[in-house]
Every structure is written in C-alpha cells, then in structure tokens.
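Colleagues,

For the teaching module next term, I've prepared a clean inverse folding example: a structure given as tokens, and then the sequence designed for it. I'd like students to try predicting residues themselves before seeing the answer, so please don't circulate the second half yet.
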C-alpha cells in the first residue's frame, strides 16, 4: 500500500509540474506596435452616418414590398462618397445589393469587405422607450443614434469613409478590393450576399479573405481577465427553427380532457428545454481560452492552460451562465406559441416554434433527430420551417494565418488600449460571410469597436447607438487595413 501511495504522489507531483509548465508557457508578452492615429473629421463623419440611419432600410414585407428606401440610401451614398462612386466599379445585385470593385495594380487574390444595408424593425409600441427616435439619425451625447448604428450601417459607412480617404490620398491597392453590401442579411442574405458570391464565382474571382461583421471588443466578458478582449469570428453557428403542432377535438372549457392540445404541446416544449443537446468545447474555444490564460490569476491560468485535463471543469463553469453556455452547445429557444381563441373554449390546435443555434460538430439533421427523440409524442407533428436554415461552419478559418495576423496587427495599431487580447471565436449569430465559403476558407467576422453589455443589448433592442470614438476607430481600422494590404 505504501508503495502505491508513493507512486500516486509521484504522479500527482509530475502532473502539477506539467500543468505549471503549461501555465508558464502561455504567459508570452505582446509585442509593441506603432500607433496609427490620423486626425479625422469626426463631426462630418458622424453626420454622414446619421443621415444613413435616418433611412429605414427594412426588408420588404407584403405591406411594403418595394425597395425604394434602399435606392434612397444608394443615392445618399453616391452624394456622400463622390470619389468611391467615380473611381470604383459599382453594380446593383438582386434589386438592391451593392458590389464595388477597386481594381488593384497586380493580379492577386482580392480582399472582400462586407456589410449589410438592411436593419431590423422597431417593435410597434416601443418607440417611446428610445432616447431619440430610432429613425431620426441623431448625433448627441458623444454617439450616433438610430436603428442600424451597430448592426450594421456603421461598418458599411466606415468602409466607404476609409476608401474615400485612401482615394483622396492617391492610394491604389496592390490586389483588387471588393466591397459587398447585401440588402437582406437579416432575413437570410439569399438575394444579396448569396447572389454576389454566385456572381463572383461565375467570374472566377479569387479571394484572399473576407471580413464581415461578427465579433467585437468587450471588457469583462470573461471573469478575471484584466485586458479588453477582441474576438474575431472564424466560424459561426448554424440556424434552424422547428415548428411543433398538435390538434384536438376542442370543446367547452368546463369539461376538459386529461390533456389538452395546449397541455400536450407545452409538455413537449418543456421536455426540449429540460433535455438540451450536449455541451463540448470546440478547438476554437480552446484557442480563445489559451490566449486569455496569461491575463488571469495563477490558479485560473493553470486551469485554462491545461484544458486537456480541465475541460470538463471549464464546461461546467460555462454552464452556469446563459451567455457562456451558449458558446459550447446547440441552444434551444422556444420563441413562438400560438393557441386558443377564447378563455372558455378548448383550443383545437396549438403551435410552437423553437429556434436552435447549432454548434460546430452538430447538424440540422442531428437537431431534428434530437427533437423527435426528446418530444417522443406521435400526436405532436415536427417540421423544420422552410423560411431559412443553415448548417454550422464545417471548418473554422485559420487563426495562425497571415490574414488573421494582419487583422490583429491593424486592430492594435488603431486602438488606444493596444494591449488587447485578440482571439478567435465562434459567432452565435448568422452573417453574410457564410455565403462566400466557396470562394475562400478564410472568412473572418469582426466589428472593430468596443461594445459594452448595454450597447450589445441595444442592437435589435432599444437605443441602438455607436459612440463616436468607436466609430472613428472603425474608420481608422479599415483605412489602415487597406494600406497594409499594399
């Protein structure tokens, strides 16, 4: 027994040594960079963004089927950015999508900068909760206010500002640069980005990499970290909405059966919430945690630097927060429930919609199989909504690549807080970037701005706005990125 204890002690000591070495090894200092802080006319840039926000570029509906607002935005952009529209080639795709080509000096793989023109609606009855009207385009209190200020007209305008600045300076890129601004990202991107990607593929265009919206700079997103965290999306989750429906005879509420249509459907939804798909840390998450490790206390560092052993512990910690838990599993979110016509009448039919954001490694087919297994009720019909669904990214974009390094270097040079942690991550939301997967495996998703939790909650919510200082950082970022491309 004594001999066994000695062996166990030796193994334990060796394990501590290995874990301690791994923790020490990740604590590499960040190289110093030369700041890039050109003076910009912030007031004029803020006014131009505000004018674009004042145009409600909502996706067409049966009540408002036209694209007039998008064409109004196009006319505004032509007036605001005369050099872009006189020196770059411009095409209209799918009725309102915009594709610009800035010809390079040489034949080499192109850079594609993406953003989208469309914005989500403001829920009726919530307008009064906004500090400034959502489609007024107001500049106040150091910010530009309005629907689309973050998602995603700030990126669209910042890209155009950067190109306009470089044209004014006489700069010409070495390789082609494409600007791709779809008009329907919020409802699938099929008529915008997908059509643009199909056109580029037909022309045999070679892309080096794509940069679209996605991650951002956050502070305190990971408990214990001391530095701002810039997350660059290298992949994105899939998307699926499933309709559950059931029917019953109905009748008077004074004589209900043991289980009503509503009760049966509610039980099915409750089972789906209770039995969620399994969690697992992806390679992308492991790399993010490895990069964070040098910025936390020694005990946390030892845990994060040794995920080969501690991954189950980290996963359990992630599960304690809805935000972090969503990064490691396919999420289950009941979003719609429809049933009944009157309080004393039993519903003859009930319908619910459950939305799933599918983690890498899972699939649409796998989620549907999970739903059928968990619901396990022949009286509940299960079907995927036809409107839109997408698979998760099959292969993440490389983070040990020159393109990722270039994005990171440019970000550090335009950031006052140059000592950032820059790491890859998987975007929970869908982006237009996925439509360009056939043209390059290097699809990156990043908005070069610091977003507080309040600002993150504002897009698709109330009081959406972008601080002017962050918007100017975005302009500098895109301007330097173009320069760095040669």
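(Answer key — instructors only)
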């Amino acid at each position: 027994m004594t001999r066994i204890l000695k062996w166990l002690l030796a193994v334990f000591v060796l394990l501590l040594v290995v874990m301690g070495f791994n923790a020490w090894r990740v604590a590499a200092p960040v190289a110093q960079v030369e700041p890039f802080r050109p003076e910009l006319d912030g007031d004029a840039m803020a006014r131009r963004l505000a004018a674009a926000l004042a145009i409600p570029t909502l996706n067409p509906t049966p009540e408002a089927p036209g694209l007039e607002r998008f064409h109004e935005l196009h006319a505004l952009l032509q007036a605001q950015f005369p050099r872009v529209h006189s020196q770059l080639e411009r095409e209209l795709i799918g009725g309102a999508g915009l594709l610009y080509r800035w010809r390079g000096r040489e034949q080499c793989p192109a850079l594609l900068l993406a953003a989208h023109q469309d914005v989500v609606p403001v829920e009726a009855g919530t307008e009064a909760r906004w500090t400034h009207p959502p489609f007024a385009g107001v500049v106040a209190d150091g910010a530009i206010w309005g629907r689309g200020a973050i998602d995603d007209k700030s990126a669209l305008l910042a890209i155009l500002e950067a190109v306009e600045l470089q044209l004014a300076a006489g700069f010409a890129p070495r390789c082609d640069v494409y600007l791709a601004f779809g008009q329907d990202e919020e409802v699938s991107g099929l008529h915008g980005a997908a059509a643009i990607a199909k056109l580029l593929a037909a022309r045999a265009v070679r892309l080096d990499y794509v940069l679209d919206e996605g991650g951002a700079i956050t502070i305190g997103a990971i408990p214990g970290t001391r530095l701002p965290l810039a997350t660059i999306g290298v992949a994105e989750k899939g998307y699926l909405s499933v309709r559950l429906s059931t029917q019953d005879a109905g009748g008077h509420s004074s004589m209900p059966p043991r289980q009503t249509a509503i009760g049966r459907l509610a039980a099915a939804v409750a089972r789906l919430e209770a039995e969620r798909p399994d969690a697992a840390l992806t390679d992308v998450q492991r790399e993010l945690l490895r990069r964070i490790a040098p910025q936390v206390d020694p005990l946390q560092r030892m845990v994060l630097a040794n995920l080969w052993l501690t991954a189950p512990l980290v996963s359990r910690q992630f599960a304690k927060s809805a935000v972090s838990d969503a990064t490691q599993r396919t999420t289950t979110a009941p979003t719609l429930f429809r049933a009944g016509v009157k309080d004393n009448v039993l519903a003859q039919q009930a319908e619910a919609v459950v939305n799933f954001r599918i983690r890498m490694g899972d699939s649409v087919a796998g989620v549907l199989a999970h739903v059928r297994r968990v619901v396990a009720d022949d009286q509940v019909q299960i079907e995927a909504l036809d409107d839109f669904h997408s698979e998760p990214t099959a292969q993440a974009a490389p983070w040990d690549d020159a393109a990722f390094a270039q994005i990171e270097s440019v970000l550090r040079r335009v950031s006052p807080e140059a000592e950032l942690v820059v790491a890859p991550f998987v975007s929970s939301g869908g982006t237009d970037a996925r439509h360009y997967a056939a043209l390059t495996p290097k699809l990156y998703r990043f908005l070069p701005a610091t977003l507080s939790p309040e600002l993150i909650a504002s897009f698709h919510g109330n009081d959406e706005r972008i601080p002017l200082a962050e918007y100017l950082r975005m302009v500098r970022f895109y301007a330097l990125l173009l320069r760095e491309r040669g």
